Each structure stands twice: as C-alpha cells, then as structure tokens.
Records
---
Amino acid sequence: MKKTIKQLRYEQAVKLASYRDPDCPELAILEAQSIMTSFYRLCKLSERNLYLSNDANKANLKSTTESEEREQKWFERLNKVFQNKYGLCLCYCGYMPSIGIRNENGSFTEKIERYFYE
C-alpha cells in the first residue's frame, strides 16, 4: 500500500530525531516535526520567491525584496537549528533548500528527503 504524504513526512521526522537521539523518544519526534514544518514553510516561501523574481511586473517591487530578505533570514536561523541540534545543514540545490551534510570535497549529500502535497 502506498504511503501518504503525512506518513512519509512523519518517517523523515523520526529519521531527523534519530540524528540527535538514537532512541527517538516521542518528545524528540514532536520537536523534529515542528522543525520540519518550519522547513516546509521555508520551501514554500522559496518557491513563491522564485515566481515573484521571474515575474516582470513583480520582480523589482519592495514586497518581493522584503520576501527574499525574509527567506534569507529564515534560512540562516533554520540552518543554525539543524547544525546545532542534528549536525546537519541546509543547502540550496536548485531553488529550494535541502537537508544534509557537506562532504570534504565540497559536494552535498541529502540526508532528509522532502515530500510535498500536489
């Protein structure tokens, strides 16, 4: 049976929680779910900003610039959370951030998968 997006996201939250505590207590999973919710909201903002910056009528508006600045601040704050709590980092691979680790050769390996509703 095919898993739902909710089930897939829960599995990734459990996987994220295991980076901090291999026993994965329920409280750690709830915290990971909250952080992942923030991550998905950042992804949506990244997608929105992509559309705004590629729209000739909206690309140079103050609201677009403010939205891009908000995205940058959100990314930096969330990246610190991933680094400090889980030893992972965010990296833009395309227009949306991914969660993973930076390799010694400068490449990036995704460790937590993203699942989106269509």
Note: The beta strands are 89-92, 97-102, 108-112.
---
Amino acid sequence: MPDMLGLQYKLESKAAKWYATIDIANAFFSIPLAEECRPQFAFTWRGVQYTWNRLPQGWKHSPTICHGLIQAALEKGEAPEHLQYIDDIIVWGNTAAEVFEKGKKIIQILLEAGFAIKKSKVKGPAHEIQFLGLKWQDGRQQIPTEVINKITAMSPTNQ
C-alpha cells in the first residue's frame, strides 16, 4: 500500500485545476474469499457459528489485499493517470472535460472488474475536492475548516 504522505506529495506536484474522486462502495465486501480460506474466518456469536465469505473489515490484511486487487484491475484496464489509496481514487487535469473522461474510464474499468460504484461516492469534476481527509485546490492541500473548528473547540482534558 502506498504511503499517504507520498501520495500527498505526488498530488501536490500535479498542480491541477480540476479534480474528481471515486470511492468504491463496500470495497472489502466486493471481494469474495476463496472457499478454502473461509474456515479461517469463522466465528461464534450468541451460540451460532458464522463464516465470512467476503473480505472482512477489521482483518489486518484486508486493506492491503483490497488495494492490490483494485490496483491490478486498474492496471489491467489501462486506467488513466490517477492516485489510489485502498478504495479511494483521485484523478486530475486542466479541464473539467479531461477529468470527467478520466473518471468515466476508471469507473468503467472498476465496474467491469466487479466493483460497485455509487453515484453519491463520485465527486467532481471540481476546482476544490476532498481526498484522504484533506481539501485540494490548485495543487495545494488544506485541512478542511470544519476539522480545524472541531479541534479548536475542544476543551482540555487534563484540567
């Protein structure tokens, strides 16, 4: 999996005017577990045994597996230039039309690979967008105002 700081530096270097983001819906649950692996994911709750048949959230290797499978699908489909962190993807460009076409191509590849995309999880093209918790505009990152407001409104816990 890529380093988040490294992704931020790469995105800053693009100095883009337009952005779009795609967040795959329930990405982990889109990935079936191999039949022979399922017994390793069995658990008992209230006296009933259950077994995961999809990649479970909370398992330490799930993010890496999910990221790798999405990355492989995008590479196989010859996706346009983008950055990816697990199931979050960003594209950029100098025009809204360019960004729209890049996003459309990536969505097509992901759908063909069996991933679900909700329209509400696709943002842009826009001059300003949030990606990995940061606001991006003109190749620069900012901490969103609402995050700063929450932090400054916190009361000290050591008094």
Note: The first strand starts at residue 18 and ends at 23.
---
Amino acid sequence: MYYTSGKDVTVTIWEKGITFHAKIEKWNHNEVIVNEKNNRAKWTFPYQDVLKGKIKISPKRTH
C-alpha cells in the first residue's frame, strides 16, 4: 500500500479512536507524514504501524 504526496486521504488511528481527513506529505519505508486538513496539524507515523493495521490510511471518498 502506497499513496503519493498530495493525495487526499482519510486517516484512522485505532488506539485513540480518531479519524480525520488529511493530505499525504511524505511516504517511504520508514515513516508516513500527513497534514490534517481541519487544524493543519502534522502527524508522523512509523510505516510499520500502517502495515500492522494500527493506523488505517484510505483514499478520501467524495460523494
């Protein structure tokens, strides 16, 4: 699973029960960096957490 920089996504952090819309800033085999859209917070996640399913990153759906 891999998304390019600039892609709009939905991020779910299962342990904290948080879901938000973000834009991918950087994605490599060490870390994933996203910018949250609502409050412009920058989140950094270890890539291994994404692979293990602790963090779910999916394409943002438009209705």
Note: The radius of gyration is 11 Å.
---
Amino acid sequence: IMGRKTFESLPRILDGREHIVLTRNKDYTYDHPQVTVVYSVDELLELTRDDREYPVIGGSEIFRILLPYTDRIYLTRIDRNFEADVYFDMIDEETWEVVEEREGILDEKNTLPHVFYTLERK
C-alpha cells in the first residue's frame, strides 16, 4: 500500500508484488494487473478485509492516515542523520510496544549501521 507519489517514484513495477495505490485524485488510473488504485480509506479497508498482512510503504501522509488502522509496525532505524523535508515521528510509546529488535548485518550492500524493530499496538 502506498500513495500515488510514492508509487510514481518507483523505478518500475516490483515483480511478484501487489501494488495498492491510495490517491484522492479521482482521475488517476494505472493499467497493470499488479496495480490497484483506490480513492478512499473506506475503499482500501474494504479491499484489504482479509487475514493477509499489507505492508504500507509510504509516503508520510499515507502513514499518518493509516496509522489508526495499523496493528503492527516494521521499522528500520538507520544510524545516520539525513536531510529530508518529511519525517516519520508518529510512534507513541503509550500505544506501541517493541516486541522484537535486531541489529542489521553490515555488508557491501548495507553499509550503514541499522536496527530492525517490530512494534505492536498495546
């Protein structure tokens, strides 16, 4: 699940993955068998009404909108400061509990120290 801008920033359709694009733009369409465009949170919730897990990959507005419907967060924290115009700082310790934490492995592809967290709604 992603917003339109995040979808359009992808270099290509990701092989073997379903893409659900949430947008307010009623004129937006995308003709591809792996892409479904929805125009409201209600439509998205109806589409995802099963026991599958649907990763939400952004952008920040989509995170903000869908956080109240989320039971689990997979978060990667990278040990570096980045210049950015948008930040994800919506995790409230009163609401979320870290249930798993593990350090990422550094290699030639992953050169920055990073930690993977799994958080669940309390």
Note: The first strand starts at residue 2 and ends at 3.
